[in-house]
Write a structure and sequence with these properties.
By secondary structure, the chain is an all-alpha fold. The chain contains four helices and no strands.
Length: 116
Amino acid sequence: MRNSSSLWSRLIGAGERLYSGRRKLATVAAVGLAISLGYHVIFGQNGLTMYEQKKREARELDVELKRLQKENEQMSGHIGRLQNDPSAIEHQAREELHYTRPGEVIYTLPAAPAKK
């Protein structure tokens, strides 16, 4: 019986210490929560670091989009010339297919040697 009363008094003492330290425990819990929340805001899945990365990717994609739009406009102009201008068709055929007019000679030069 003495053993159980000793255990009971120790439990009561631990409970009293816990109750008297409740303010410290609540402060530690609040600080831990604030640190965890701050970490999530900065480094989390939708945090500031991801925001900056997505912003940088958006700028890079915008530059790529503008480059592709410019290339598309150039190609559209080239297609329009090929559809409507016989001299453009002739120029393209002579350049790509090496067509010649009667009496013309095409000289093909060897490729430049690779530099070391």
